[in-house]
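Field reference: sequence -> structure
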Amino acid sequence: MPATGAGDRCCPHGIRGRRRALPVATTRAVSLLVVKVLVTGGAGYLGSITCKALEEAGHTPVVLDSLLNGPRVFTRDRVFYEGDIADRELLRRIAAEHPDLDATIHMAARIVVPESMEQPYLYYKDNVAKSLELFDELTALGLTRVLFSSSASLYAAKDDFEVVEEDPLDPASPYARTKRMMEQVLIDLAAATDLRAVILRYFNPIGSDPDLESGIYVREPSHVIGQLVLAARGLKPSFTITGTEHPTRDGTGIRDYIHAWDLARAHVRAVERFDHVLAEVGETSTVLNIGGGEGTTVRELVAAFERVFGSPVPITEAGPRPGDAIGAFANADKAARLLDWRTELSLDDGIASALAWAERRQEILGYE
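Structure field:
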């Protein structure tokens, strides 16, 4: 049953039930060509929203997902193959059945930092070893445009927290190190083979699909917005701020929160302008920061969340978790220049979207 009581406060200002509240016309208006895109991990949180953005722009996503994590319901009404990214026979079948594939967005990965600290083998096997098989088979099939989902967690700490793509890297967890390894793999493969790569370093996505058809699906998400939503809805006793002695303006970690829909739009632009981007930089691969360009501390995020939610959230404090980084925010000038892309949605928009999705999860997924 949908939540009542405290949960009813999750949708202030008429958010409950709102559909198509976010802009979608921009992506369609700038579409350069119609393409078909293989999306690995397309049943996941960001994968399913990216598929929606591709469709809104007139493109066709072809989803490949093992359903290890992502729910089957997120693949509805889409071309879907259930299987492993390292299954070469399956990849050959997909290519044969879709000879008009233009690019691959590789989003399939394990992504939970604390889990990666406890089970690094799984992360290196699934994120690195299997991706190598995928890239090699894609190259053999002539599917040489690869858009890769990387992470801002690679960056070394900086005094001013603003990072550009050329800044030093210091990945602090096995998860982050797998992303760094795959960046280097793609750079090396692109230099030696016909494969070409555009690498997107995500900052911190929040919010849901504009139609509230997909969003965070983990029952108890480990990321900050998911934890805040649970605490706000009374599904856990409090929200825990992990790490209060960082060298930031209030001692808590700093992040660059970007609405998932803006992130999905960036993928659309990167697919549409793939060849143009590499021609502009004169390289076989390149890295782009995808973020909002503004740093928000955890305490500032909590204040914004309470403002949108309309009520205080119970708070506790604890030390940092293993693998947690102090954080950073994006200088996204390169993405703006090469993709003609900028964020359109605010932090408050992302929080409101996350809360609205929390109200609808029961209907879509069968649990809160």
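Note: Residues 1-32 have pLDDT under 50 and may be disordered.
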